[in-house]
Amino acid sequence: MEWESVRCEKCEKVIEKIQMYCPYCHDILGQISFHIDGCIESENQKDFLAFPIAKNDAKRFANILNTQGYMYYLLLDLAESENLQKDDNLSYNEFLKSIREKMKYDVFSQAKKGVYCFGEIGDCMKIGFLASDDIITVVKAFSEVIKQENFDMQFPTLKGRETTFPRFDGTVGKITIAENNSENMLNLKLNNNELEKTFCLTLNGAIDFNDYELTQLFRYDHEIKTNKEIFKDFVLSLWIQKEILDDLEWDNIQTVTIETKSHNVPKKRVFGLIGFTGMSKESYKKIENPDKFLDNKNLPAFPGS
Question: Is 19 inside a domain boundary?
Fold first, then answer.
């Protein structure tokens, strides 16, 4: 079967070669799924077929996001990922694939209001939520998957010198969307260099998100170094921004103030720490004295407010 040209649904230009987006208006080609079988290699067909579905999921998420004006954004990192990758790169990639599949099929279904996984590449999962309760529900379910699947037995070459494998660090912040950018929320573009509040199309064909407040959250996530002591009792640690603690109505959790810089200007945010056991009973615990679990060599931390 040979590729047949299609006409873009948005700008009506004729598309002559296989691609997910229109080269003229950069809109995603929803009708491309009808022209795939036999036209491209079988291992690539799955990604092309799933693309229109990803766009629809993102659009539903964006519609609610535009209405409520904010979302919660979780950065979930595999601890010691660089060392694990060096130990066995093939097993490392297979492990990440398995983790993402478990998250997609066994965990995200637990969210009641809405959840979307951005980027979908590398060892850091970037997950957007529309409700604060869903953060705890999803992370709790993910922690149980980590415990139940016995990944250390499935990927023994990755455990190496780690006493606990796998273990994850998470940082979650509240991202507020400016009103003047809401109309552009799902203006998917080929060029990902523009710093504006929009869902965008990455070079690897995934839907991602750009935002100034998100850039700040990445800076805090980079600064927060959780030491290994917490993983004696937990498989996942989650640093939660105070604004989210307020939304959860958690007023009895101790916090620390984390400092970073933006354009050499000091910025501070207050975070609390939750440890997840991976067990169905006593699944998580609000950590007292969270500063004990910060690697203070890398980070200035202050008493929380």
Answer: no
> pTM of the entire structure?
0.79
Give the pair of three-digit tokens for residue 299: 């980070």
| Domain of residue 185, CATH code | 3.30.70.1230
- The answer to the question of residue 1 being in a domain is no
Structural domain of 134: 41-303
Of the candidates 54, 122, 125, the residue with the CA atom closest to the CA atom of residue 92: 122
Cβ atoms 172, 135 nearer than 8 A: yes
Could you please report the per-residue DSSP string of 88-103?
A: -HHHHHHHHHHHHHHI
Tell me the average confidence (pLDDT) per consecutive run of 10 residues in the chain, 305 residues long. 66 73 66 49 56 75 85 93 88 92 91 88 88 96 95 88 84 81 53 49 71 86 90 94 95 90 82 95 93 69 44
Element (H, E) at 284: strand 284-286
* Position 193 in a domain: yes
Structural domain contains residue 243: yes
Cα→Cα distances 234→10, 150, 153, 279, 294, Å:
49, 15, 18, 10, 15
Query: For residues 37 and 1, is the Cβ–Cβ distance under 8 A?
Result: yes
Could you tell me whether strands 236-241 and 168-176 are parallel, antiparallel, or unpaired per DSSP bridges? parallel
Domains in the chain, number:
1
